[in-house]
Inverse folding.
Protein backbone atom coordinates (compact mmCIF):
# COMPACT_ATOMS: atom_id res chain seq x y z
CA UNK A 1 0.00 0.00 0.00
CA UNK A 2 1.18 3.53 -0.81
CA UNK A 3 1.18 5.99 2.09
CA UNK A 4 -0.69 9.28 1.83
CA UNK A 5 2.56 11.01 2.76
CA UNK A 6 3.81 10.21 -0.75
CA UNK A 7 1.75 13.20 -1.91
CA UNK A 8 3.92 15.54 0.16
CA UNK A 9 5.94 17.64 -2.26
CA UNK A 10 3.36 17.36 -5.08
CA UNK A 11 2.66 20.62 -6.88
CA UNK A 12 -0.85 22.15 -6.85
CA UNK A 13 -1.79 22.65 -10.50
CA UNK A 14 -5.26 24.13 -10.07
CA UNK A 15 -8.22 24.47 -7.72
CA UNK A 16 -11.83 24.07 -8.95
CA UNK A 17 -15.39 23.86 -7.66
CA UNK A 18 -17.26 21.89 -10.37
CA UNK A 19 -20.37 21.77 -8.14
CA UNK A 20 -21.46 24.24 -5.44
CA UNK A 21 -20.44 21.86 -2.61
CA UNK A 22 -17.57 20.03 -4.35
CA UNK A 23 -13.94 21.27 -4.37
CA UNK A 24 -11.11 19.67 -6.33
CA UNK A 25 -7.32 20.16 -6.07
CA UNK A 26 -5.33 18.80 -9.00
CA UNK A 27 -1.85 17.53 -7.94
CA UNK A 28 1.19 16.54 -9.94
CA UNK A 29 4.51 14.98 -8.90
CA UNK A 30 7.07 12.68 -10.57
CA UNK A 31 5.46 9.69 -8.91
CA UNK A 32 1.76 10.63 -8.94
CA UNK A 33 -0.85 12.65 -10.84
CA UNK A 34 -4.48 12.89 -9.72
CA UNK A 35 -7.09 15.09 -8.08
CA UNK A 36 -8.06 15.45 -4.45
CA UNK A 37 -11.83 15.93 -4.06
CA UNK A 38 -13.63 17.31 -1.01
CA UNK A 39 -17.45 17.20 -0.81
CA UNK A 40 -19.31 19.49 1.58
CA UNK A 41 -22.67 18.10 0.42
CA UNK A 42 -24.50 17.02 3.64
CA UNK A 43 -25.88 13.94 1.86
CA UNK A 44 -22.43 12.79 0.65
CA UNK A 45 -19.65 14.46 2.72
CA UNK A 46 -16.09 13.19 2.49
CA UNK A 47 -12.67 13.30 0.81
CA UNK A 48 -10.99 11.11 -1.76
CA UNK A 49 -8.75 10.82 -4.81
CA UNK A 50 -9.82 10.46 -8.45
CA UNK A 51 -7.61 10.00 -11.52
CA UNK A 52 -9.30 12.76 -13.60
CA UNK A 53 -10.54 16.20 -12.59
CA UNK A 54 -14.39 16.34 -12.65
CA UNK A 55 -15.74 18.96 -15.04
CA UNK A 56 -18.41 21.45 -14.03
CA UNK A 57 -19.06 25.09 -13.25
CA UNK A 58 -16.65 27.91 -14.08
CA UNK A 59 -14.54 29.34 -11.28
CA UNK A 60 -16.33 31.86 -9.06
CA UNK A 61 -14.58 34.67 -7.18
CA UNK A 62 -13.77 32.46 -4.18
CA UNK A 63 -12.18 29.76 -6.35
CA UNK A 64 -10.23 32.41 -8.25
CA UNK A 65 -8.86 33.67 -4.92
CA UNK A 66 -7.79 30.12 -4.00
CA UNK A 67 -6.06 29.73 -7.35
CA UNK A 68 -4.21 33.00 -6.89
CA UNK A 69 -2.91 31.93 -3.47
CA UNK A 70 -2.26 28.21 -4.12
CA UNK A 71 -1.45 27.57 -7.79
CA UNK A 72 2.11 26.29 -8.10
CA UNK A 73 2.52 25.71 -4.34
CA UNK A 74 3.88 22.42 -3.03
CA UNK A 75 1.97 20.21 -0.58
CA UNK A 76 3.66 20.20 2.83
CA UNK A 77 1.12 18.11 4.75
CA UNK A 78 -2.33 16.52 4.48
CA UNK A 79 -3.95 16.22 7.91
CA UNK A 80 -7.28 15.31 9.41
CA UNK A 81 -7.37 17.64 12.39
CA UNK A 82 -10.77 16.45 13.71
CA UNK A 83 -13.47 13.97 12.66
CA UNK A 84 -15.03 16.51 10.28
CA UNK A 85 -12.16 18.92 9.50
CA UNK A 86 -9.41 18.35 6.92
CA UNK A 87 -6.33 20.49 6.30
CA UNK A 88 -3.95 20.86 3.37
CA UNK A 89 -0.74 22.78 4.15
CA UNK A 90 1.26 24.23 1.27
CA UNK A 91 4.43 26.22 0.72
CA UNK A 92 5.30 28.77 -1.96
CA UNK A 93 7.91 31.46 -2.36
CA UNK A 94 5.46 34.12 -1.11
CA UNK A 95 4.71 32.19 2.11
CA UNK A 96 3.03 29.14 3.60
CA UNK A 97 -0.76 28.69 3.42
CA UNK A 98 -3.24 26.24 4.86
CA UNK A 99 -6.57 25.27 3.33
CA UNK A 100 -9.17 23.91 5.73
CA UNK A 101 -12.42 22.07 4.93
CA UNK A 102 -15.17 21.75 7.56
CA UNK A 103 -17.62 19.00 6.58
CA UNK A 104 -19.92 19.34 9.57
CA UNK A 105 -23.65 19.09 8.96
CA UNK A 106 -24.35 22.49 10.57
CA UNK A 107 -22.47 24.98 8.38
CA UNK A 108 -19.89 23.45 6.01
CA UNK A 109 -17.13 25.90 5.17
CA UNK A 110 -13.77 26.31 3.43
CA UNK A 111 -11.08 28.56 4.93
CA UNK A 112 -7.78 29.76 3.49
CA UNK A 113 -5.27 30.99 6.12
CA UNK A 114 -1.71 32.22 6.12
CA UNK A 115 1.09 30.94 8.41
CA UNK A 116 -0.24 33.08 11.32
CA UNK A 117 -3.75 31.66 10.81
CA UNK A 118 -5.09 34.95 9.50
CA UNK A 119 -8.10 34.34 7.22
CA UNK A 120 -7.32 35.24 3.61
CA UNK A 121 -10.57 33.93 2.12
CA UNK A 122 -13.59 31.86 3.18
CA UNK A 123 -16.54 30.27 1.41
CA UNK A 124 -18.86 31.57 4.13
CA UNK A 125 -18.28 34.37 6.67
CA UNK A 126 -15.75 33.39 9.33
CA UNK A 127 -13.76 35.16 12.10
CA UNK A 128 -10.65 36.85 10.77
CA UNK A 129 -8.15 34.97 12.93
CA UNK A 130 -9.84 31.69 13.99
CA UNK A 131 -9.78 28.13 12.79
CA UNK A 132 -12.87 26.33 11.64
CA UNK A 133 -12.54 23.89 14.53
CA UNK A 134 -10.06 23.55 17.40
CA UNK A 135 -7.07 21.54 16.24
CA UNK A 136 -7.06 18.32 18.25
CA UNK A 137 -3.44 17.31 17.68
CA UNK A 138 -3.93 14.06 19.54
CA UNK A 139 -6.61 12.97 17.08
CA UNK A 140 -4.80 14.39 14.06
CA UNK A 141 -3.91 11.96 11.31
CA UNK A 142 -3.60 11.54 7.56
CA UNK A 143 -6.56 12.01 5.18
CA UNK A 144 -6.78 8.22 4.77
CA UNK A 145 -4.92 5.04 5.51
CA UNK A 146 -3.39 4.89 2.02
CA UNK A 147 -3.65 6.29 -1.50
CA UNK A 148 -5.59 3.18 -2.52
CA UNK A 149 -8.12 3.76 0.26
CA UNK A 150 -8.48 7.43 -0.77
CA UNK A 151 -9.03 6.36 -4.39
CA UNK A 152 -11.80 3.99 -3.34
CA UNK A 153 -13.39 6.76 -1.28
CA UNK A 154 -13.13 9.17 -4.22
CA UNK A 155 -14.83 6.76 -6.64
CA UNK A 156 -17.66 6.10 -4.18
CA UNK A 157 -18.04 9.79 -3.41
CA UNK A 158 -18.32 10.83 -7.06
CA UNK A 159 -20.73 7.98 -7.79
CA UNK A 160 -22.99 9.12 -4.95
CA UNK A 161 -22.89 12.76 -5.99
CA UNK A 162 -23.46 11.84 -9.66
CA UNK A 163 -26.43 9.59 -8.88
CA UNK A 164 -28.01 12.18 -6.59
CA UNK A 165 -27.57 14.92 -9.22
CA UNK A 166 -29.10 12.84 -11.99
CA UNK A 167 -32.03 11.76 -9.84
CA UNK A 168 -32.69 15.33 -8.74
CA UNK A 169 -32.57 16.63 -12.32
CA UNK A 170 -34.89 13.86 -13.51
CA UNK A 171 -37.34 14.45 -10.64
CA UNK A 172 -37.40 18.19 -11.41
CA UNK A 173 -37.99 17.50 -15.10
CA UNK A 174 -40.80 15.03 -14.39
CA UNK A 175 -42.46 17.53 -12.06
CA UNK A 176 -42.34 20.34 -14.64
CA UNK A 177 -43.64 18.03 -17.41
CA UNK A 178 -46.48 16.78 -15.22
CA UNK A 179 -47.44 20.37 -14.44
CA UNK A 180 -47.39 21.28 -18.14
CA UNK A 181 -49.58 18.27 -18.94
CA UNK A 182 -52.15 19.23 -16.28
CA UNK A 183 -52.30 22.77 -17.67
CA UNK A 184 -52.74 21.48 -21.22
CA UNK A 185 -55.51 19.11 -20.11
CA UNK A 186 -57.33 21.95 -18.32
CA UNK A 187 -56.98 24.07 -21.46
CA UNK A 188 -58.46 21.27 -23.58
CA UNK A 189 -61.45 21.02 -21.22
CA UNK A 190 -62.00 24.80 -21.39
CA UNK A 191 -61.74 24.76 -25.19
CA UNK A 192 -64.35 22.00 -25.36
CA UNK A 193 -66.70 24.17 -23.28
CA UNK A 194 -66.15 27.09 -25.70
CA UNK A 195 -66.92 24.83 -28.66
CA UNK A 196 -70.13 23.58 -26.99
CA UNK A 197 -71.50 27.13 -26.85
CA UNK A 198 -71.89 27.04 -30.64
CA UNK A 199 -74.74 24.55 -30.16
CA UNK A 200 -76.86 27.46 -28.92
CA UNK A 201 -76.27 29.55 -32.07
CA UNK A 202 -79.09 28.02 -34.25
CA UNK A 203 -81.71 28.63 -31.56
CA UNK A 204 -80.48 32.20 -31.02
CA UNK A 205 -80.80 32.88 -34.76
CA UNK A 206 -84.27 31.31 -34.87
CA UNK A 207 -85.47 33.40 -31.90
CA UNK A 208 -83.97 36.57 -33.40
CA UNK A 209 -85.66 35.94 -36.78
CA UNK A 210 -88.99 35.24 -35.10
CA UNK A 211 -88.66 38.44 -33.11
CA UNK A 212 -87.93 40.54 -36.22
CA UNK A 213 -90.97 39.05 -37.95
CA UNK A 214 -93.21 40.20 -35.07
CA UNK A 215 -91.80 43.63 -34.15
CA UNK A 216 -95.21 45.25 -34.66
CA UNK A 217 -96.77 43.01 -32.01
CA UNK A 218 -94.22 43.43 -29.21
CA UNK A 219 -94.19 46.64 -27.13
CA UNK A 220 -90.93 47.81 -25.61
CA UNK A 221 -90.37 46.79 -22.00
CA UNK A 222 -92.03 43.39 -22.39
CA UNK A 223 -90.35 40.59 -20.45
CA UNK A 224 -91.70 37.77 -22.64
CA UNK A 225 -93.70 37.26 -25.80
CA UNK A 226 -95.84 34.37 -27.09
CA UNK A 227 -95.28 34.19 -30.84
CA UNK A 228 -96.42 31.78 -33.55
CA UNK A 229 -93.52 30.07 -35.29
CA UNK A 230 -94.49 29.18 -38.86
CA UNK A 231 -91.15 27.44 -39.50
CA UNK A 232 -92.37 24.50 -37.44
CA UNK A 233 -94.48 21.74 -38.89
CA UNK A 234 -97.20 22.19 -37.88
CA UNK A 235 -96.92 25.89 -36.84
CA UNK A 236 -96.89 26.35 -33.08
CA UNK A 237 -96.78 29.11 -30.48
CA UNK A 238 -93.52 29.56 -28.57
CA UNK A 239 -92.71 31.61 -25.47
CA UNK A 240 -89.61 33.82 -25.79
CA UNK A 241 -88.00 35.56 -22.78
CA UNK A 242 -87.00 39.18 -23.50
CA UNK A 243 -84.79 41.81 -21.88
CA UNK A 244 -87.13 44.68 -20.91
CA UNK A 245 -84.22 47.15 -21.09
CA UNK A 246 -83.86 46.54 -24.82
CA UNK A 247 -86.19 47.24 -27.70
CA UNK A 248 -87.34 44.11 -29.60
CA UNK A 249 -85.15 45.08 -32.55
CA UNK A 250 -82.12 45.62 -30.31
CA UNK A 251 -82.82 42.27 -28.64
CA UNK A 252 -82.84 40.50 -32.02
CA UNK A 253 -79.60 42.20 -33.07
CA UNK A 254 -77.97 41.17 -29.77
CA UNK A 255 -78.99 37.54 -30.35
CA UNK A 256 -77.62 37.57 -33.90
CA UNK A 257 -74.38 39.08 -32.57
CA UNK A 258 -74.11 36.42 -29.85
CA UNK A 259 -74.76 33.63 -32.35
CA UNK A 260 -71.98 34.93 -34.63
CA UNK A 261 -69.63 35.18 -31.64
CA UNK A 262 -70.40 31.62 -30.57
CA UNK A 263 -69.77 30.32 -34.11
CA UNK A 264 -66.49 32.20 -34.44
CA UNK A 265 -65.48 30.90 -31.01
CA UNK A 266 -66.26 27.32 -32.06
CA UNK A 267 -63.96 27.61 -35.08
CA UNK A 268 -61.12 28.98 -32.96
CA UNK A 269 -61.81 26.37 -30.29
CA UNK A 270 -61.43 23.56 -32.83
CA UNK A 271 -58.03 24.92 -33.90
CA UNK A 272 -56.88 25.29 -30.29
CA UNK A 273 -58.12 21.80 -29.45
CA UNK A 274 -56.07 20.25 -32.28
CA UNK A 275 -53.00 22.18 -31.18
CA UNK A 276 -53.49 21.19 -27.52
CA UNK A 277 -53.95 17.49 -28.37
CA UNK A 278 -50.65 17.55 -30.29
CA UNK A 279 -49.00 19.23 -27.30
CA UNK A 280 -50.34 16.51 -24.97
CA UNK A 281 -48.92 13.80 -27.26
CA UNK A 282 -45.51 15.49 -27.19
CA UNK A 283 -45.63 15.88 -23.40
CA UNK A 284 -46.55 12.21 -22.96
CA UNK A 285 -43.58 11.22 -25.14
CA UNK A 286 -41.27 13.47 -23.10
CA UNK A 287 -42.58 12.02 -19.83
CA UNK A 288 -41.83 8.50 -21.02
CA UNK A 289 -38.33 9.50 -22.16
CA UNK A 290 -37.63 11.35 -18.88
CA UNK A 291 -38.62 8.31 -16.78
CA UNK A 292 -36.12 6.18 -18.73
CA UNK A 293 -33.25 8.75 -18.84
CA UNK A 294 -30.16 7.94 -16.77
CA UNK A 295 -27.51 10.23 -18.28
CA UNK A 296 -27.23 13.95 -17.48
CA UNK A 297 -26.77 14.80 -21.17
CA UNK A 298 -30.03 13.07 -22.06
CA UNK A 299 -31.87 14.84 -19.23
CA UNK A 300 -30.46 18.22 -20.30
CA UNK A 301 -31.69 17.63 -23.88
CA UNK A 302 -35.15 16.68 -22.57
CA UNK A 303 -35.21 19.80 -20.39
CA UNK A 304 -34.58 21.96 -23.45
CA UNK A 305 -37.42 20.25 -25.37
CA UNK A 306 -39.67 20.67 -22.33
CA UNK A 307 -38.92 24.40 -22.18
CA UNK A 308 -39.87 24.78 -25.84
CA UNK A 309 -43.23 23.18 -25.01
CA UNK A 310 -43.78 25.65 -22.18
CA UNK A 311 -42.95 23.38 -19.23
CA UNK A 312 -41.81 25.53 -16.32
CA UNK A 313 -39.07 24.72 -13.84
CA UNK A 314 -41.08 24.75 -10.60
CA UNK A 315 -38.14 26.17 -8.65
CA UNK A 316 -37.97 29.14 -11.04
CA UNK A 317 -41.75 29.51 -10.91
CA UNK A 318 -41.64 29.52 -7.10
CA UNK A 319 -38.95 32.23 -7.06
CA UNK A 320 -40.96 34.27 -9.54
CA UNK A 321 -44.02 33.88 -7.31
CA UNK A 322 -42.13 35.32 -4.35
CA UNK A 323 -41.22 38.41 -6.36
CA UNK A 324 -44.66 38.84 -7.85
CA UNK A 325 -45.72 42.48 -7.85
CA UNK A 326 -49.20 43.71 -7.15
CA UNK A 327 -51.43 43.82 -10.25
CA UNK A 328 -51.65 47.20 -11.95
CA UNK A 329 -54.69 49.14 -10.78
CA UNK A 330 -57.25 49.86 -13.50
CA UNK A 331 -58.56 53.45 -13.26
CA UNK A 332 -62.02 52.67 -14.64
CA UNK A 333 -65.05 50.42 -14.26
CA UNK A 334 -65.97 48.33 -17.29
CA UNK A 335 -69.65 47.72 -18.00
CA UNK A 336 -71.47 46.25 -21.01
CA UNK A 337 -74.01 48.12 -23.12
CA UNK A 338 -75.85 47.57 -26.40
CA UNK A 339 -74.69 44.42 -28.25
CA UNK A 340 -72.35 43.58 -25.36
CA UNK A 341 -70.15 46.61 -26.17
CA UNK A 342 -67.79 47.88 -23.43
CA UNK A 343 -68.40 51.20 -21.66
CA UNK A 344 -65.62 52.58 -19.43
CA UNK A 345 -66.40 54.76 -16.39
CA UNK A 346 -63.70 56.62 -14.41
CA UNK A 347 -63.47 55.75 -10.70
CA UNK A 348 -62.48 59.21 -9.41
CA UNK A 349 -61.09 62.61 -10.38
CA UNK A 350 -57.49 61.45 -10.97
CA UNK A 351 -58.82 58.27 -12.60
CA UNK A 352 -60.92 60.40 -14.95
CA UNK A 353 -57.73 62.01 -16.24
CA UNK A 354 -56.06 58.61 -16.58
CA UNK A 355 -59.02 57.19 -18.52
CA UNK A 356 -59.55 60.17 -20.81
CA UNK A 357 -55.97 61.24 -21.46
CA UNK A 358 -54.13 57.91 -21.49
CA UNK A 359 -56.60 55.13 -22.26
CA UNK A 360 -59.16 56.74 -24.58
CA UNK A 361 -58.26 57.02 -28.27
CA UNK A 362 -58.98 60.13 -30.36
CA UNK A 363 -61.95 58.50 -32.13
CA UNK A 364 -63.58 57.11 -28.94
CA UNK A 365 -66.74 58.80 -27.67
CA UNK A 366 -66.47 60.77 -24.41
CA UNK A 367 -69.50 61.60 -22.19
CA UNK A 368 -70.10 63.58 -18.99
CA UNK A 369 -73.06 64.96 -17.06
CA UNK A 370 -73.23 68.62 -18.07
CA UNK A 371 -72.05 71.33 -15.66
CA UNK A 372 -71.80 69.05 -12.58
CA UNK A 373 -69.17 66.84 -10.99
CA UNK A 374 -69.16 63.30 -12.28
CA UNK A 375 -67.31 60.45 -13.89
CA UNK A 376 -65.80 60.56 -17.34
CA UNK A 377 -67.44 57.90 -19.54
CA UNK A 378 -65.71 56.51 -22.64
CA UNK A 379 -67.22 54.32 -25.36
CA UNK A 380 -64.47 52.60 -27.39
CA UNK A 381 -65.23 52.87 -31.12
CA UNK A 382 -63.46 51.79 -34.25
CA UNK A 383 -62.11 54.47 -36.63
CA UNK A 384 -64.83 56.35 -38.54
CA UNK A 385 -67.54 54.47 -36.58
CA UNK A 386 -70.60 56.39 -35.40
CA UNK A 387 -71.80 55.38 -31.98
CA UNK A 388 -75.06 53.36 -32.30
CA UNK A 389 -77.99 55.26 -30.73
CA UNK A 390 -78.77 52.48 -28.25
CA UNK A 391 -75.15 52.35 -27.11
CA UNK A 392 -75.13 56.15 -26.76
CA UNK A 393 -78.21 55.93 -24.51
CA UNK A 394 -76.56 53.24 -22.39
CA UNK A 395 -73.42 55.35 -21.91
CA UNK A 396 -75.51 58.45 -21.15
CA UNK A 397 -77.38 56.55 -18.41
CA UNK A 398 -74.05 55.66 -16.80
CA UNK A 399 -72.76 59.23 -17.07
CA UNK A 400 -75.92 60.44 -15.31
CA UNK A 401 -75.75 57.77 -12.61
CA UNK A 402 -72.07 58.39 -11.78
CA UNK A 403 -72.56 62.14 -11.32
CA UNK A 404 -74.06 64.65 -8.88
CA UNK A 405 -77.37 64.28 -10.78
CA UNK A 406 -77.81 60.66 -9.71
CA UNK A 407 -81.52 60.01 -9.08
CA UNK A 408 -82.72 62.93 -11.25
CA UNK A 409 -85.35 61.96 -13.86
CA UNK A 410 -83.89 64.16 -16.63
CA UNK A 411 -80.15 64.88 -17.03
CA UNK A 412 -78.26 66.81 -19.72
CA UNK A 413 -75.32 64.75 -21.02
CA UNK A 414 -72.42 66.28 -22.95
CA UNK A 415 -70.72 64.05 -25.51
CA UNK A 416 -67.96 64.46 -28.09
CA UNK A 417 -65.13 62.48 -29.71
CA UNK A 418 -62.08 62.34 -27.43
CA UNK A 419 -60.03 64.38 -29.94
CA UNK A 420 -62.13 67.46 -29.11
CA UNK A 421 -60.92 67.50 -25.48
CA UNK A 422 -57.85 69.11 -23.98
CA UNK A 423 -56.44 69.45 -20.47
CA UNK A 424 -55.69 73.09 -19.52
CA UNK A 425 -52.33 73.60 -17.85
CA UNK A 426 -52.74 73.69 -14.07
CA UNK A 427 -56.35 72.48 -14.18
CA UNK A 428 -57.47 70.31 -11.24
CA UNK A 429 -57.80 66.52 -11.66
CA UNK A 430 -60.74 65.52 -13.85
CA UNK A 431 -61.15 68.98 -15.38
CA UNK A 432 -61.04 69.22 -19.20
CA UNK A 433 -62.14 71.66 -21.91
CA UNK A 434 -64.18 70.83 -25.02
CA UNK A 435 -63.64 72.47 -28.39
CA UNK A 436 -66.81 70.87 -29.82
CA UNK A 437 -69.70 69.18 -28.05
CA UNK A 438 -73.24 67.89 -28.36
CA UNK A 439 -75.82 67.75 -25.59
CA UNK A 440 -78.31 64.94 -25.08
CA UNK A 441 -81.31 65.53 -22.81
CA UNK A 442 -81.65 62.12 -21.20
CA UNK A 443 -84.86 60.82 -19.65
CA UNK A 444 -83.53 58.21 -17.22
CA UNK A 445 -85.00 54.72 -17.56
CA UNK A 446 -84.50 53.00 -14.14
CA UNK A 447 -84.96 49.50 -15.63
CA UNK A 448 -82.36 50.12 -18.29
CA UNK A 449 -79.96 51.58 -15.71
CA UNK A 450 -80.40 48.58 -13.40
CA UNK A 451 -79.61 46.22 -16.25
CA UNK A 452 -76.45 48.20 -17.15
CA UNK A 453 -75.14 48.26 -13.57
CA UNK A 454 -75.54 44.49 -13.35
CA UNK A 455 -73.06 44.04 -16.24
CA UNK A 456 -70.07 45.55 -14.40
CA UNK A 457 -67.04 43.30 -14.70
CA UNK A 458 -65.23 42.33 -11.46
Amino acid sequence: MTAVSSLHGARIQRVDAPKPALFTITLSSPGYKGTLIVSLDPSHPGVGLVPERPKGAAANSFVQKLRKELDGARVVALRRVSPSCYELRSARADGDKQLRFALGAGAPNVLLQDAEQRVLASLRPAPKTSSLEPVAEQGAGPWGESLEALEQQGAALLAGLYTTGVEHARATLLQSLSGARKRAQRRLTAVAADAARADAAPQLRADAALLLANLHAIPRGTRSARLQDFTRDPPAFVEIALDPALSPKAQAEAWFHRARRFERGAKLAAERADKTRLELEQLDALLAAARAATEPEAIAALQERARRLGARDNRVAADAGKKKTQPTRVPYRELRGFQDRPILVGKGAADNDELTLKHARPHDLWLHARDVAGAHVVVPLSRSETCPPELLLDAAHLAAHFSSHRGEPIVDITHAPRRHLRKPKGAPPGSVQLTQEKVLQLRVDPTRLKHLLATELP
Notes: Residues 178-321 form one domain. The first helix runs from residue 61 to 70.
